[in-house]
């Protein structure tokens, strides 16, 4: 009797992954997060606070999980009604619009979810999307996944006065270059203010330039404003949707995680006119359907509290930047002491530091031949100095990475103990530099 032969497993001849994933499978964050876990480091790379959210936010979440048992169940698909109501009321005043909670607000799984839903709903095969770089690194893959074509325009840095630190405000849009990026195929422009990684807060004049071009070419503006409360030195955040004529063609995206220092809650939102938002609702109802109820209930309570205290010293939206500005200034001084050249950010969680001096002194750091210098430097710093930062070249398109490979990004929205640990590493580094 012949032994039974196991059937041969056939390998699919068809391409397994969808074409939309081609070219976007590599994510540099994975590598740097892995390295941060492998070495004894102070993690100043990833953008999250390592301190508690405010007491009122923690209490709101506790109440949401232990109070009304129906908060364990489904809520309305497009947002927990008390949350959409308070968001409409709160932001309606800021945007100068009468917002309908059912038509003008959509609650999403973080701002990331709002972005993905917007790209899927609005960007079609062959549509062009203008991305101002440096740009948060999800905009390009999200454009590609939707079948669109990213079109990049870089902010241009200008040198600071002698003896002065550069500022994120020294990076400007070049009006003629920006205008040249608009074509009949342009569907949307992505704006991020305050900008990650640069910390730039776009001025009203710059926003008017963008607004005029969007209106002239009938282009949608997807405005990522998750850091809107984190502005420093008297700068003012302006929502482009509040400018004349822009409400009708703008999606404004926000984040409870960034607003209340609770990034793990993953509650975001997008606001806009019903004629645009109805298409995002279609994607939303056919993907996640709705977001966790209890987190939404907690965020609703937080905004109700902020609405009562808005503009007063007791407002968390005023207290948070006041608390973080000394952290920023502390980090700037500390980084300068070892020859890094920080740029003073106007807003956000982040500052970037120029590493040009290191690039000229030690150009041959380990790494692949075509690997941008800032990535090699960031890995060297993790392994040899115990400090994690993120290379800024990952926030640029491939053709521009070599032009901006001499910056690294640090997060200063950290606990005092983290900054002290940073100082210890910096002091050790400083001693090693002494002859």
From TrEMBL:
Pathway: Amino-acid degradation; L-kynurenine degradation; kynurenate from L-kynurenine: step 1/2. It catalyses: an S-substituted L-cysteine + H2O = a thiol + pyruvate + NH4(+); L-kynurenine + 2-oxoglutarate = kynurenate + L-glutamate + H2O. Keywords: Aminotransferase, Pyridoxal phosphate, Transferase. InterPro entries: Aminotransferase_I/II_large (IPR004839), Kynurenine-oxoglutarate_AT (IPR051326), PyrdxlP-dep_Trfase (IPR015424), PyrdxlP-dep_Trfase_major (IPR015421), PyrdxlP-dep_Trfase_small (IPR015422). Pfam families: Aminotran_1_2. Residues 40-421 form the Aminotransferase class I/classII large domain. The keyword Coiled coil does not apply. Its cofactor is pyridoxal 5'-phosphate. It comes from the Eukaryota. PANTHER family: FI04487P, KYNURENINE--OXOGLUTARATE TRANSAMINASE 1. Belongs to the class-I pyridoxal-phosphate-dependent aminotransferase family. This is Kynurenine--oxoglutarate transaminase 1 isoform X2.
């Amino acid at each position: 009797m012949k032994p039974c032969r196991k059937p041969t497993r056939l390998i699919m001849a068809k391409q397994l992954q969808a074409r939309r994933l081609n070219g976007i499978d590599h994510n540099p964050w994975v590598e740097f997060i892995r390295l941060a876990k492998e070495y004894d480091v102070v993690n100043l790379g990833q953008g999250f606070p390592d301190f508690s959210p405010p007491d009122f936010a923690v209490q709101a979440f506790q109440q949401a999980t232990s109070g009304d048992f129906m908060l364990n169940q489904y809520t309305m698909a497009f947002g927990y009604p008390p949350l959409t109501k308070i968001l409409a009321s709160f932001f309606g005043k800021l945007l100068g619009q009468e917002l309908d909670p059912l038509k003008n607000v959509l609650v999403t799984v973080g701002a990331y979810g709002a972005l993905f839903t917007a790209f899927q709903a609005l960007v079609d095969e062959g549509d062009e999307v203008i991305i101002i770089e440096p740009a948060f690194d999800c905009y390009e893959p999200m454009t590609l996944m939707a079948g669109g074509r990213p079109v990049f325009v870089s902010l241009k840095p200008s040198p600071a006065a002698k003896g002065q630190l550069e500022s994120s405000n020294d990076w400007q849009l070049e009006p003629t270059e920006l205008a040249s990026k608009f074509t009949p195929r342009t569907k949307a422009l992505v704006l991020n203010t305050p900008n990650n990684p640069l910390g730039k807060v776009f001025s009203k004049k710059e926003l008017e330039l963008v607004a005029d071009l969007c209106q002239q070419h009938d282009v949608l503006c997807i405005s990522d404003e998750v850091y809107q409360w984190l502005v420093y030195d008297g700068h003012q955040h302006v929502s482009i949707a509040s400018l004349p004529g822009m409400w009708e063609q703008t999606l404004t995206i926000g984040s409870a995680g960034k607003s209340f220092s609770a990034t793990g809650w993953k509650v975001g939102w997008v606001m806009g006119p019903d004629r645009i938002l109805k298409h995002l609702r279609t994607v939303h109802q056919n993907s996640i359907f709705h977001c966790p109820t209890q987190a939404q209930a907690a965020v609703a309570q937080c905004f109700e509290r902020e609405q009562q205290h808005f503009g007063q010293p007791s407002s968390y939206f005023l207290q948070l930047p006041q608390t973080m500005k000394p952290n920023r200034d502390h980090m700037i001084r500390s980084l300068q002491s070892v020859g890094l050249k920080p740029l003073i950010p106007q807003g956000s969680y982040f500052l970037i530091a120029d590493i040009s001096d290191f690039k000229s002194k030690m150009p041959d750091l380990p790494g692949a031949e075509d690997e941008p210098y800032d990535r090699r430097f960031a890995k060297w710093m993790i392994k040899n100095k115990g400090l994690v930062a993120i290379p800024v070249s990952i926030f640029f398109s491939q053709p521009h990475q070599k032009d901006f490979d001499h910056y690294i990004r640090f997060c200063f929205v950290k606990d005092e103990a983290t900054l002290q640990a940073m100082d210890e590493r910096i002091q050790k580094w400083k001693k090693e530099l002494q002859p």
